[in-house]
Amino acid sequence: MDEAANEQDVIGEEHWTHKGDVKLFLWEKYLGKPGNKKGTVLFVHGSSMASQPTFDLHVEGRPFSSAMNYFALQGYDTWCVDMEGYGRSTKDRDITCDIANGADDLAAASAYIEKTRGAGPLLVYGISSGALRAALFAERHPERVKRLALDAFVWTGEGSPTLEQRRKKLPQFMASKRRPIDYAFVQSIFSRDHPGCAEDKVVDAFAEAITALDDSMPNGTYIDMCSKLPLVDPDRITVPTLIMRGQYDGIAGFEDLVKFFEKLPNPDKQFTVMAGISHASFQQKNYMLAYHVLAGFFDQPKSVYREG
């Protein structure tokens, strides 16, 4: 980290690209000049919030509430993208915006980043359904992914109490393309698994940032996670991979993840359980632990010895 720089020195720049007729909003943050320095990170958001509230949050008195600021000061060029149906990206198509559609968005975003900054392959982090999007993207385009981090990931859904409860509402989700959200819904993300893992002021700031951009969210990822798992084949994810699981996460079943991890073919792989963290790791009291784990994986030295 540049000891002489601070968060106020990080520069933000908006970008737009297209996926056919769909406009996708991208947000870039960097220190100094843009471009591929230590590496380029692409952050991928989850089912119920756009990208900037998740990865570029500001909370008074809480340093580095913005993961993008933290990693920019570590020497990375950082990006996030609003999936179709979220935030500032196109929301008017009559589709549910499922996991596969999100992987298409990442293909468009990564092509734009490579063209604009000459960056690639990318360091990719996804959380929850964003981890599913990121994993499917890596399965389809391994040449574009240098290292892959999957946080709050779900494979078959086995051992997930949150998904078990969510499946009861599957007919409701399938009956419409979008579902309403409000402050109470955002608060429920932090109370359902293990109350107390996040500060109230962080939940408030997160909810305010989310609802400033959206009052409803696409149903596609919920439908996929409730009725179509598994969506990703671990045998086809050939890039170095990190599995991150919060201790109390109700989405990511531990045994389910272990079985997924065992099948990953690349020997450069890690599985980390983060103590005191529930589902939304970057908004938890222990968020710096999540950053530390991710930064260590992204900055891991290249293997000198490889058999064969």
Provide keyphrases for this structure:
10 strands; 308 residues; eight-stranded mixed β-sheet; 11 helices; Rossmann fold; alpha/beta
Can you describe this structure?
The radius of gyration is 18 Å and the shape is globular. It has helices at residues 51-55, 67-73, 99-117, 129-140, 161-166, 170-174, 183-191, 200-213, 220-227, 254-263, 287-298; strands at 10-19, 22-31, 40-44, 77-81, 122-127, 145-151, 178-180, 216-218, 241-246, 269-274. The chain has one domain (7-298): Rossmann fold. The chain is 35% helix and 20% strand.
Number of helices: 11
The helical percent reads 25-40%
N- to C-terminal distance: 36 Å
The H/E string reads: EEEHHEHEHEHHEHHEHEHEH
Instruction: Provide the CATH architecture.
Output: 3-Layer(aba) Sandwich
Strand content: 15-25%
Task: Report the CATH C-level class.
Answer: Alpha Beta
Described by strand count, sense and barrel closure, the largest sheet is: 8 strands, mixed
- Please, how many domains? 1
Mean pLDDT: 96
Number of strands: 10
Determine Rg (CA atoms, Å): 18 Å
Q: What is the subunit arrangement here?
A: single chain
CATH topology: Rossmann fold
- Ranges where pLDDT stays below 50 over 5 or more residues in a row are none
Overall, the morphology is globular
Strand order of the largest sheet: 1-2-4-3-5-6-9-10
Which structural class matches the secondary elements?
Answer: alpha/beta
Let me know the CATH homologous superfamily. Answer: Alpha/Beta hydrolase fold, catalytic domain
Pfam families: Hydrolase_4 (PF12146)
Domain Serine aminopeptidase S33: 63-282
Protein name: Alpha/beta hydrolase
Keywords: Hydrolase
